[in-house]
Amino acid sequence: MEILRNIRNCLNHCGVVDAIGLAHQGESIVAWDAQTGLPLCNAIIWQDQRTESVIQKLRAEGIEEVVRARAGLPLDTYFSASKMGWVMNNVAGARELLRKGTLRLGTMDAFFMFHLCGVHATDYNSASRTSLFNIHTLQWDEELCRIFGVPIEALPEVRHNTGHFGDVRSEGNTTTTPLTACIVDQFAGTYGHGCVEPGQMKITFGTGAFLQSIAGTDVPDAHGSGLLPTLCWKLPGEKPVYGLDGGVYNAASAVNWAGKIGLFTELEDFSDFPNEPAIARGLAFVPALSGLGCPHWDRSAAGLWAGLSLETERKDMLQSILEGIAVRSAEVINAMARVRPVGDTISVDGGLSSNRYFTQFLSTLIQKQIVSPSNREITAQGVAMLARKGLGNEHPLKAVMSEIGNIIIYIIMAGTLLGAMASVVKPESGLGKEFVNGIHAIGPVFLAQAGIMAAIPIISYAITHTIGPLFESMGSDVSIAALSVIAVDMGGYQLADVIAANRDQWITAMLIGYTSGASIVYLIPVGLVMLQKKDHKYLALGAMAGLISIPFGVLISLMLITLNNIPVREIISTSSAANHYLSIDFVNALHLLSPLFAFCFLLALGLKYRTDLMVNAFLLFGKVMDAFIKLVLAACIIQHFTGLFTTLFGHWIFDPLFADEKELYRAIEIAGYIGIMLAGTFPICYLFQKYCQRPMKFIGRRLKLSDTGALGMVMVLANIIAVFHLFASMRARDKVLCVAFGICAQATLGDHLAFTANFQPTLVLPIMAGKFLAGAIAVAIAIFISVPEAQRMEQKDAQSAGESSPETGMTPQRTQ
Description:
Layout: H1 2-13, E1 20-24, E2 29-33, H2 52-60, H3 64-71, H4 80-90, H5 94-100, E3 103-107, H6 108-117, E4 121-123, H7 124-127, E5 133-134, E6 139-140, H8 142-148, E7 157-159, E8 162-169, E9 176-184, H9 185-192, E10 201-205, E11 209-216, E12 228-233, E13 241-248, H10 252-260, E14 284-286, E15 304-306, H11 314-339, E16 345-350, H12 356-366, E17 369-371, H13 378-391, H14 398-425, H15 430-440, H16 442-465, H17 467-473, H18 478-482, H19 488-499, H20 503-530, H21 536-563, E18 567-568, E19 580-581, H22 586-609, H23 611-642, H24 644-649, H25 661-691, H26 693-703, H27 707-715, H28 720-724, H29 732-745, H30 751-759, H31 764-800
Parallel strand pairs: 1-9, 4-7, 10-16, 16-17
Antiparallel strand pairs: 2-3, 5-6, 8-9, 10-11, 11-13, 12-13, 14-15, 18-19
Helix pairs in contact: 9-13, 11-12, 14-15, 14-25, 14-30, 15-25, 16-20, 16-23, 16-25, 19-20, 20-21, 20-23, 21-22, 21-23, 21-29, 21-31, 22-23, 25-27, 26-27, 27-29, 29-31
């Protein structure tokens, strides 16, 4: 009743809310009288072992397999069924209330819901934790109720995990708030971690370690594994989502026990271990202080220290405690992986998740990445997300954002199909030729991308140790420095995830990587390879105008995300839930972007007043980068076939693109992906040019572009390479404006859109808006600064070649 009073007190003081979600200790139970609402006894919590003798008796009778087959759970005092049976056999008045029809039995959520909403109800997930619910038929099981001696008529109605459970009245009955979600706390955490797809897993390190992985919409066959197949949640109109559950009884409780016996006084003692792992030195700790949980399920097991000697110090023992908890957790993870595949990333929360030694040891042990969400109240976050879902109040643009990328890809694939058919049926046709040109364009793309990918470790190291500290001294972050020169889809996204100070700065860095990073390591190197030398200066003029506008586009995207309260994924995933909200205001955004604004201001001054110097510096940078890329590739090839560098230096200094099969396939995959996109983009470009002349002419008139230049402004939204393909038939103004626009807007509807739709689908529209508007700013800057210089250069080239400028419409004089 005290908990209930605290809930009501909280609701009375939290102000106006749209909905309420309820997360609870799943296996703890209450029995109460429906007439008075009073409990018959104290709540019996999940750790209570008073029914151990009952469990042993049922196990001796061979009942365990029956329970496993129907409920998916082993016989254990942990679950609710034996507790409810104990109430029926030991609590005075229980059977009398049953006879009168007023006995109510349920997990904690059912008791709270009865008092808050006046209903006797629970949810699928909570019911599945009782050992009385058949996870196949999704109903209370009469046979299980008979086995445990629980009257089925006293159990609550089972409902979906989201929906309208009832209305909670405020003090004085002045307002009501709907209760729209109910779930066990551990599974609320699972949902809050964004674990919603098969293979995704989370671990909560509290008193014990609680592991849940998503198995899919079918019940996993965990027979003999010691794991618990469980129903994670069931939402209206959807199939139930099942998972695997495993618990380690002692995690933080083992740490607390160590403090109780005097092994430490401050939690800082569990850090800065000077020696190699204790287990590698023969010292091991088994944290079975309350028995062994999954996959052994042995309550009689006891804790153990092995390998103690006269040389063992207090610090060694503390180190071995952390390692023992990690080893037990790894044991459950490996058991899960034998039943269903587990992903490469595991999300963790709870006290131990903040201990660097512990998480690194666990990561090394299981050979998987360990990530921890920035929001420490992950259970509350998960149930809040479900409550919003139950209210039907998910972000209205979420579905649209996720689908835009698919629509564009389908259009490009249509171009691929039409181009391929034309190249077979009529190879000499324009459509067929453009399909082949798109495939051929993969060459320069691969040269640039393979070289850059090979050198990413060196580039990353150079950035983080040179301009990174400069960015930090200006109040920015090293991740923002990194993605100023590394594209988001060429390793930048993953790099920023590792080095960013927090999730807000990670997302900010990601936005920069779409424009600045993509320009430095992709657009500029590819342009210099694909374009004729005489066009390099126009590439430089357009690129610099585009670079100046980048921070404005990033600022626009950030403000759209923040002001519209759009959630983002806070881990690298293609399927997890978006559950992080940025907390960046306008001033903070300016602070983070201040180094970029400062650089762009200086770039604008140089471009305006020292144009020739800036163009020459740009071209020198391009030549250095081109030479760097070629040398890196040459080094990789030599290393692959001879091992020369490891012989000379003892190690391989480049990311081993040609020496490492995984990285080689990664480079081929990215270049091949872009090639596939171009195979469809070039035919679409051709069809646009042929059948959409009216809108092209409209754009051309507005920006004083030729028809080809107007087409380039549209095609840049798919991929800048399509524009480079059109350069030969463009004027200087066309070239500069298309490149300026492309620095910010290139691939807005192409591979950047596909990347965003995969990794951050809720950000599709903000990123598109930021890139497009930054591109518009770049065009304005180019018209003001770059175009006059480009036309001057074009005129000069024409005069030196004895020709007139194509923009004057004059014809050269013939001499006799």
